[in-house]
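Re: Re: ligand-bound prediction request (bumping)

Still looking for help on this. To restate: I need the protein modeled with D-glutamic acid bound, output as structure tokens. Inputs repeated here so nobody has to scroll up.
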Amino acid sequence: MATAPTILVFDSGLGGITVHREIARLRPDTRLVYAADDDAFPYGRFTEDELAARVIAVMSDLIGRHRPDLVVVACNTASTLVLSDLRARFSVPFVGTVPAIKPACAASRSKLVSVLGTEATVTREYTKALIRDFGGGCAVTLVGSSRLAPLAEAHMRGEPMDDAEIAREIAPCFVERNGARTDIVALACTHYPLLLAHLERLSPWHVTFVDPAPAIARRAVELLGPAQEAEIDGRALSPAFLHFTSGRQPSPSLTAAISAVIKTRTT
Ligand code: DGL
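Reply:
Sorry for the wait, this slipped through. Here it is.
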């Protein structure tokens, strides 16, 4: 049997596990390494030049250590800035995570769509170009949040959530205009699906939150090619390897919370 391919899933923190779980679902036979640049979390606080240099340096180290066959940058804040630099610099293929503006706009009936991301992601030229190219006649409201990603991390650590704070962060996504209301909110930060139950409960009216993770996983699998059935059966329980750039070991309860999201053991 051929050796299982290694996929490196990378984010500034724990948000990328929402992408990791979809890849694990489609290709449970792969060796998945989850790398969090927790030493630099959150990425929103860096200037573009600082962040580009940071991601390239960390990626160089991770590629050297784990020798991946494919890298998934499960972070909008990094992908919208450095994806093309990463592709130019390293020979391994990269799959990025960028705001799901095309599917969100295609699915909207009211033509009022919001994009909820980090402040850095929603102000990037990359995001504005996606709206120009794929907005499909929708009025797109860009909503930047500096709090939701840290809150998602706190949620993973089992800390209590402040509903009022979450409601305040998402409120600008809900727009009413000429009798129409926002019906789609694209989640443009991989941390936010970790708070999905809160987002749904605290929405002033029903909207569909678009999580780009399944589409990213499909793209990753397309690049890798399908697994043999026998390989899937034989390796379905392979544990995910966790790498934190701070060198800190996650607590047993955080490890359990991560395993519960990605549905496999971790080492
Ligand atoms: N999960 C990251 C993203 O998708 C960013 C969180 C952060 O570092 O601010 O944008």
